[in-house]
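Just curious: can you write a single protein's sequence together with how it folds?
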Amino acid sequence: MPPILLSTAVIRLSSLSTLSFSSAIHPWSPCRAFDFFRQLFKRVTSQRPATVSATPAPAAAAAGAGPPAAAAVGNQTAITSPMVGTFYRAPAPDADPYVEVGDTVTVGQTVCIVEAMKLMNEIESEVKGRVVKILVENAQPVEYGQKLFLVET
């Protein structure tokens, strides 16, 4: 019998001969198919070897911390992206940017926009200081936690 590819595990149907169906349900019923695949999933996941990581998890990740808002380096603090999306320095293509190099920002001031799934999310500064460097070009994709600005505090 040919193997079936299921969630990166190759299984031969002959090894699953002990899976049972409920005889009270019609043979082609979606409920019966669901029950079969539920049993199959239980069998596959119970046979998977457990993996243990030898390195301890960081305390912030273990505590379920939120998005990295700012990362400090010396007297400069980085404003980071709280999500994956497209970085925009201005609210519109013909408008002035929210901040320029040398501008002073305050806590809560909008510094840019990150577009994610057609939603424009205003990113606010969580530090007070002077913008030293803009690390991302306009209309470029950004990742979660990527540094956007360096602010001298």
